Amino acid sequence: MVDQDLIIAKVGSIKKHLRRIEEKSGDNLETFLEDVDRQEIISFNLHLAIENCTDLASHIISEEGFGVPGSASEMFYLLEENGFISHEITENMIKAVGLRDLIVHEYTKIDLKRIYEIVQDDIKDLHNFVAALFTKLGINAEKD
């Protein structure tokens, strides 16, 4: 059985990281590109927010007995197959996991302009993921 208290605690962490990102995102790209501290704070909090989303997915999959995913991305497919999230949310979360991997492992030089665009345009994907889970689990969003 899914531990709703754990879900609510993880969502609290996600929201804390997203608030920190919003506080530091700045009003324009130039401000972001000129401020290394801002870049690092945003990247760090993006990493943690996405990591908490994968922790949520892992907990639900384990507790519901959906199988053993072979990768972080596969977790979102399992949630989709079992009616927890839409295909659109699945695809967006897989992109988020890819971004997390880039941040953590620095596979390539991180495109700071793309990070800024993600913060401005795509951060809502994490909110949508959380909202879908709350809806499916019958958790009142005001509880968190």
In short:
With 144 residues, the protein is an all-alpha fold. It is 76% helix and 0% strand.
CATH class: Mainly Alpha
- Low-pLDDT residue spans: none
CATH superfamily: bsu32300-like
How far apart are the first and last residues' alpha carbons, in Å? 19 Å
Taken as a percent bin, the fraction of beta residues is: under 5%
- What's the CATH architecture? Up-down Bundle
Based on Cα principal axes, name the global outline: globular
SS class = mainly alpha
Give a short account of the largest sheet. Answer: none
Helix content: over 70%
How many individual helices? 7
Report the average pLDDT across residues: 93
Report the CATH topology name: Four Helix Bundle (Hemerythrin (Met), subunit A)
Number of strands: 0
Number of domains as seen in the coordinates: 1
3D architecture notes:
It is a single chain. This protein has 144 residues and is an all-alpha fold. The chain is built from 7 helices and no strands. The longest helix is centred in the middle third of the chain and has 29 residues, at 36-64. The chain is globular. The two termini are 19 Å apart.
Describe the secondary-structure layout.
Elements: H1 4-24, H2 29-34, H3 36-64, H4 72-81, H5 87-105, H6 112-122, H7 124-137
Helix pairs in contact: 1-3, 1-7, 3-4, 3-5, 4-5, 5-7
Question: Which labels suit this protein?
Answer:
144 residues; mainly alpha; globular; Four Helix Bundle (Hemerythrin (Met), subunit A); single chain
